[in-house]
Amino acid sequence: MLKAKLSDRQTQVRFVRFLTVGASAFVVQVLVMKLLLTWLGTNLSFTLSFMCSTTTHYCLNRFWALPSSRQDTRRQFGEYLTTVAISYAINLAVFHLCLDVIGLGKIWSTAVAVPPSTVVVFLLLNYRVFRHRGA
Prior knowledge:
The chain is mostly helical. Helix content is 82%, strand content 0%.
């Protein structure tokens, strides 16, 4: 069933757009992280850069990459925030694994932390939070 859904042309287009949004949000996160590291500590810089990235991610997904016909906007936003919490937990865990265990730098650890949650977040957003129009 999952294979059939992922081979659907509309899902593939949504996935490419989702990746484009993700790349944009990643650039925002890295730029904000680099800026904040000059004034703030590592965890606060990571968290604030993640928040800026998430705002970019929500707006671009909601209105372009994963347009949705859902009318329950408050509930949808709550579901999005739950997905963000899952994503944050994965990102923070991988960030600290790379930083503290592997010994990568802060920016590289930020970069490596993004991909592991990408598939999980896409599936949650595409099939639950921002369902296809007419679905």
